Amino acid sequence: MKEKILQKSGEFFLKFGFKSVTMDDIANELGISKKTIYKYFGNKEELVDESISHLHGVILKSVSCICDKGYNAIEENFEIKNTFKDLFKNTDDSPMYQLQKYYPKTYNKLMTDEFHMFKNCILKNIEKGINEGLYRDNINIELITKFYFSLVMSVHDTNLHKYNKNTINTLELKALEYHTRAIATEKGIKILEKQLEQNAN
Questions:
Q1: How far is CA 70 from CA 65, 86, 108, in A?
Q2: CATH number of the domain residue 42 falls in
Q3: How far apart are CA 75 and CA 36, in angstroms?
Q4: What is the DSSP string of 116-181?
Q5: In whole angstroms, what separates CA 190 from the centre of its chain?
Q6: pLDDT digits (tens, 9 = 90+) for 47-65
Q7: Longest C-alpha distance within the chain, in Å?
Q8: Which residues bind DNA (predicted)?
Q9: Which of 18, 140, 167, 190 could form a disulfide with 98 if both were Cys (CB 3.0 to 4.6 A apart)?
Q10: pTM of whole model > 0.90?
Q11: What's the Cα-to-Cα distance from 90 to each of 63, 164, 192, rounded to whole Å?
């Protein structure tokens, strides 16, 4: 039951917002009493925190599965981007704004966890791409990783701007293209162009 509560809570929080969703909403959707929820979670803040940790675990598992499928480094990045697009297709950026405003500790923990996951993922991807001859071998991997992470996160920063979902998807694709062009070899650029063509729609 705890797993079901976490899964449904995560879906609701991302779709409607961390502040907007109540314990009653979650209980009604699952057809259970609030008492059942409080059996596993002391309060809403605890539920939000564990829901975020659960979501982070789902993301890690999804990324790991992609990395095990034998794609080259550039294909791998596009597969990861498309997986994220599918995972968050029913959300907008207002939930993250609410998380940052009303649950700052959980938000900061999420950003730290996401950066470490992102950093490890990109580091491995760059090393893989260099070995495959798709990325140049004279790049500063640490700086490239931080720059790309900052670029992607800025797309979702509601303090800077508000975009609709289609615009966000376009900007994420442009960020990936920008990142790849900055480090790719001629061989890598050819694969990038093919991926951009396949992801044009």
A1: 10, 21, 33
A2: 1.10.357.10
A3: 44
A4: HHHHHHHHHHHHHHHHTTSB-SSS-HHHHHHHHHHHHHHHT-TTT----HHHHHHHHHHHHHHHHH
A5: 26
A6: 999 999 998 898 889 999 9
A7: 60
A8: 22-41
A9: 18
A10: no
A11: 19, 12, 28
**Whole-number Cα distances in Å, 172 to 35, 40, 79, 131, 178:** 41, 37, 13, 26, 10
Q: Helices 104-131 and 73-87 sit at what angle, rounded to 10 degrees? A: 150
Among candidates 151, 27, 162, 26, which has minimal Cα distance to 93?
Answer: 162
Give me the number of domains the chain comprises.
1
Residues contacting 124, CB < 8 A, separation 6+: 67
User: Which amino acid would we find at residue 62?
Assistant: S
Domain containing 53 equals 2-198
Separation of alpha carbons 119 and 109, rounded Å: 15
Q: Which residue has the tokens 């790309």?
A: 148
| Non-local CB neighbours of 113 within 8 Å, separated by 6+ positions | 56
In tens, the pLDDT along 2-38 reads: 999 999 999 899 888 888 899 999 999 999 999 999 9
